[in-house]
Design goal:
By secondary structure, the chain is an alpha+beta fold. The chain contains 10 helices and 28 strands. 48% of the residues are buried. Keywords: FAD, Flavoprotein, Monooxygenase, Oxidoreductase.
Length: 467
C-alpha cells in the first residue's frame, strides 16, 4: 500500500468500481480501496435504468449485466390471502433506434458489483480491501491518505465514493443539506421464501398487522428482496425470527415459509445533497455526494453517472494534457443533476409522480455547462444533450462511441475536417434525432459541440488536450 498512484478511489461500490474501470481503460493509474473485507453483500440498489445501461455498454459490462438479471415483474396486490389485482411498477415504453434500452433492468447490487470488479481486474485495476481511510491532507502537488493500519498513500487526486456516511466527506468538512423523506423505519432483506411465485412482485398493503410489505423475486437468483415499513416508528428486528414474524403478521404466509435470511438492513428514507462536490484535489461521487430515497431506482444510477462524468475528465487532465480547470465542470454539471434527481425520487416515494420517462434518465443533460458550445442550431440536438443511438452509413452510433475517445459526426452533407488525435469520424445521412450538421460527442456520450460548419472546432478541441 505504501506507493503512489494517480487517483485514489475510496469505496468499492458501483460508483468507485465504475470510476476505476473508466480510469483503467484510459491508462490512468488508480487504486480502489474499500474499508470492508469484501464487496457489499446485499441486493439494495437493484434497478439499472436505461441511461446506465448505455453507460455499461460503453464500459464493456452490458452483456454480463443483462445475463445476470431480468425485467421487473408485474406487481401482484394481495388482500386477505387472495390476489386482488395487478400493479404496473413502470410506465411502458417501446425501444427505438435512438433509445434501444427503455425498461429498467433488475440486477441485485451484489451481482452488479461483482461484474464491475471483474471488468476492473480485466483492465489491470485492483481493489484493496480492509483499507479504512482515517486521515487526509492535500497540497498543490497531491493528496496524502492515511489508513487505520498506519499505511500511507499519495495520489494526485482522490475521489470519495464511500457512501452516504462518507468518512472522506466528514474529513473534508463538507456538509449535506437535506430532509427526511419518510420518518418511518424501513427493513430491507434478501431472503429465501416458499409459497410465492417468481412471476410477480408481491405487495401486501398495510392492515391490522402493521405497515406495508413487499416481496420481490430477484432476477437471476433464487432470492427475494423483502421490504417492510414500520409506521409505529419501532426499529425492525433484523434476525431471521424477527423477519419471519413480520411476514406471518402481514401476509397469508406461515413463518416457516421464510427458509433463509441472507442479508438484512434498515434505514429511514432521506434525501440529502452535499454542499460541494469538490474540495481542491478531492471529489465526492455517488452517495457520498447525494443520498436518495430508494423509490424510483435513482440512487445507484445517478452515482454511476457521476463516475462516468468524472472519469474522462481526470483522464484528459492526467493523460491528455488538458488544463486542470476542466475538473471544475464536474461539480458544475453533476450537482444540478443530482439535485433534480433527488427531487424526482422524493416525489416518486410520496406517490406524487409515476416511474416513467424521467426515471429512465435518458433526458438528463448539460445544456448549461461551460464545456459545451452550440453554433447556429444545426438540428434538434444541442450541445449538452445526450447523443442518441442510430445508424449512419451502416455504422451503429453506440458502436462508434464505445471506448475512451471522442467522436465527430458529419451528418447530412456537412463536411468533416480532419480533427487529428484519437477522434473517430462518422459521416453520412442525418438521423431524424440529429438533423444535418457537425456533432462532436464527448467520451461520456454527450454532445460537446454542435454547428453547421467546422469553424471554431480546433479552438474548442484545444480545451481538452490530446483528445
Amino acid at each position: 500500500m505504501d506507493r503512489d498512484t494517480d487517483v485514489l478511489v475510496v469505496g468499492a461500490g458501483p460508483t468507485g468500481l465504475a470510476l476505476g474501470i473508466d480510469l483503467a481503460r484510459r491508462g490512468v493509474a488508480a487504486l480502489v480501496v474499500e474499508r470492508a473485507e469484501a464487496l457489499f453483500p446485499g441486493s439494495r440498489g437493484k434497478g439499472i435504468q436505461p441511461r446506465t445501461m448505455e453507460v455499461f455498454d460503453d464500459l464493456g459490462v452490458l452483456d454480463a449485466i443483462r445475463a445476470a438479471g431480468g425485467t421487473y415483474p408485474v406487481g401482484m396486490i394481495w388482500q386477505d390471502g387472495r390476489r386482488a389485482g395487478e400493479h404496473r411498477m413502470f410506465d411502458a415504453a417501446e425501444p427505438s433506434e435512438d433509445a434501444p434500452y427503455t425498461e429498467p433492468w433488475m440486477v441485485p447490487q451484489w451481482r452488479t458489483q461483482r461484474i464491475l470488479r471483474a471488468r476492473l481486474e480485466e483492465l489491470g485495476g485492483e481493489v484493496a480491501f480492509g483499507r479504512e481511510v482515517v486521515g487526509l491532507a492535500q497540497d498543490q502537488g497531491g493528496v496524502r491518505a492515511e489508513f487505520a493500519s498506519g499505511e500511507v498513500l499519495t495520489a494526485r487526486y482522490a475521489v470519495a465514493a464511500d457512501g452516504g456516511r462518507s468518512t472522506v466527506r466528514r474529513l473534508l468538512g463538507i456538509g449535506m443539506t437535506g430532509e427526511t423523506v419518510d420518518p418511518n423505519p424501513t427493513l430491507v432483506a434478501d431472503v429465501r421464501i416458499s409459497g410465492l411465485d417468481r412471476d410477480n412482485w408481491h405487495v401486501f398493503p398495510p392492515g391490522e398487522g402493521g405497515g406495508f410489505l413487499a416481496i420481490c423475486p430477484l432476477a437471476g437468483t433464487e432470492d427475494f428482496q423483502l421490504v417492510a415499513q414500520f409506521p409505529d416508528g419501532t426499529a425492525p428486528d433484523l434476525s431471521l425470527e424477527g423477519i419471519r414474524k413480520v411476514v406471518a403478521t402481514r401476509s397469508h404466509l406461515a413463518p416457516e415459509c421464510l427458509t433463509e435470511l441472507r442479508w438484512a438492513s434498515d434505514f429511514r428514507p432521506r434525501a440529502a445533497l452535499a454542499d460541494r462536490f469538490r474540495s481542491g484535489r478531492l471529489f465526492l461521487a455517488g452517495d457520498a455526494a447525494h443520498v436518495h430515497s430508494p423509490a424510483g431506482g435513482q440512487g445507484l444510477n445517478t452515482s454511476v453517472q457521476d463516475a462516468y462524468n468524472l472519469g474522462w475528465k481526470l483522464g484528459a487532465v492526467l493523460r491528455g494534457g488538458a488544463d486542470a480547470a476542466l475538473l471544475d465542470s464536474y461539480e458544475e454539471e453533476r450537482r444540478p443533476i443530482a439535485a433534480d434527481v433527488l427531487g424526482l425520487s422524493t416525489r416518486v416515494h410520496r406517490g406524487e409522480t409515476r416511474r416513467g420517462e424521467a426515471t429512465r434518465q435518458l433526458g438528463l443533460g448539460y445544456r448549461q455547462s461551460s464545456t459545451r458550445e452550440t453554433r447556429t442550431g444545426p438540428g434538434p440536438l444541442r450541445a449538452g444533450d445526450r447523443a442518441p443511438d442510430g445508424t449512419v452509413a451502416g455504422v451503429r452510433l453506440f458502436d462508434a462511441f464505445r471506448g475512451p475517445h471522442w467522436t465527430l459526426l458529419a451528418l447530412g452533407g456537412a463536411q468533416a475536417p480532419d480533427p487529428g488525435g484519437r477522434i473517430r469520424v462518422v459521416q453520412g445521412p442525418a438521423p431524424r434525432t440529429y438533423g444535418p450538421g457537425l456533432y462532436l460527442v464527448r467520451p461520456d456520450g454527450y454532445v460537446g459541440w454542435a454547428a453547421d460548419t467546422a469553424a471554431g472546432l480546433p479552438d474548442y478541441l484545444a480545451r481538452f488536450g490530446r483528445c
